[in-house]
Design a protein that fits this description.
With 131 residues, this protein is α+β, with helices and mostly antiparallel strands. It contains 2 helices and 7 strands, in the order H-E-E-E-E-E-H-E-E. It starts with a helix and ends with a strand.
Length: 131
């Protein structure tokens, strides 16, 4: 939940939807925070997070004593490594400039079309109705 909130607060363009992840496991690290590994249902990409919501990347160490180590990384790196941009639609926190590559957003202050006339967008068991 903390990573999802951080993505929203930092206005990150690819949201972290909790219901699209499943817990894959936890790595207990002596003297350091445990790292929880969450896998995305659609692409299997892993998001590695500690209890404080800090994100990590796994670095393999083939010639070392262990198989690898977790190194703290910024949210952008963690989301890209989990390949969320491949499976999650980009969100806008402000209207894009005219002529931008992405389509313009509906004007939320507009009366036309009426909310009942707008289509619902389904995400699993949830429905988003523009209005």
């Amino acid at each position: 939940m903390l990573v999802s909130r951080r993505a929203r607060v930092e206005r990150f363009p690819w949201p972290v939807h909790l219901d699209e992840f499943q817990l894959a496991g936890r790595v207990v690290r002596a003297g350091r925070p445990d790292v929880w590994i969450y896998e995305h249902h659609d692409n299997g990409g892993s998001l590695c997070v500690d209890a404080a919501g800090d994100t990590y990347r796994f670095v393999a160490t083939p010639r070392a004593e262990g198989v690898g180590q977790f190194r703290r990384c910024d949210l952008r790196t963690a989301v890209w490594r989990a390949r969320l941009p491949d499976v999650v639609d980009r969100v806008w926190y402000a209207r894009p400039a005219a002529g931008a590559d992405e389509p313009a957003l509906d004007d939320p202050t507009s009366d036309d079309p009426a909310p009942a006339d707008r289509p619902a967008v389904r995400r699993g068991h949830l429905a988003l109705v523009a209005g």
